Please model this.
Amino acid sequence: MAKGRNIKRKSNKKPNSFLIFIVVVIVLALVSFGISYLVLDKDKETGKTAADVEESIVVIPNDKQGDHASDKETLVGMAQLAGTWVSNYDGTMLTIQGSTCVLESPAVDSPEKVSGTIMVNKSIVTFVFTDKHSCGSTEGHYEYQMEGDGGVFFRKIKDDCKMRTELMSASWFRL
Model:
């Protein structure tokens, strides 16, 4: 009797690395789209539009600022923002003291220091630069929101100065 041989053949098929690469790229793309959707959807949850917030902006003439400073919410807002903040975007320092603010750029080759005024009305902040600056004396209106452990985020309401808009749209941490 002849014994049957069981011959197992070895497969020379290797996993197609290009196919695996394409699958990984597609999965990463789907995950990044999902995260982007969740982050961008968070802005919609606030329910406020720029027009709604813009209506609540009250510009106070300089001669009446003393009367306005007695508003409790304004004083709380000014106290929350007082101090030195550092931008997570580029390391710019924002120092707020009373109704003045100073922006100091960290650039080594051409450091820039810009002074200005700041007005707080509840959760709305208005920045006006007084030094010679590319923004001139254009007002920038932002809604601020305190974040977790000593952070703040400014959301643009209305600002025609692109440089300030780019700079202020980063999150800031207290120094």
